[in-house]
Hints:
By secondary structure, the protein is an all-alpha fold. Helices cover 95% and strands 0% of the residues.
Amino acid sequence: MKKLSLLIGTLGGAMAGYLFSNKKLRKDLAEAKDAETAARLLGKHLQRDGKKLAAQAQEFIDSDEVQHNLKKAKSYTQDTFETARKELMKLVNRAEEAASTAAQSANSSARTAAKKAAGKAKRTARRMKTKVRKLL
């Protein structure tokens, strides 16, 4: 609801500013006989002024200064993207190296543990054989 009231307030402020700045519109609205006529007059003025505004905006966008700034913004964005991509690749490479090191460490640890377990099993088997011989 806050957004709706803010939107309505903004539109009301914009319309008031438009009404205060347009002398001809104020005069025409004062002479309007009913609300329907006033609405038509307001629509006509908004349409005409909207076309002017659109033409001015198009002219502004096509100006050399805006195009130059757009090129600068595009090159800045591309440079920033390249920097971010390089940093990300460094981070990925570090993670790969850490994962590789961890895998090698786990491999060697597993190999060592397997050798110890095999040796222990052999010793236990020898002791059992000896105990069985003594029993027989």
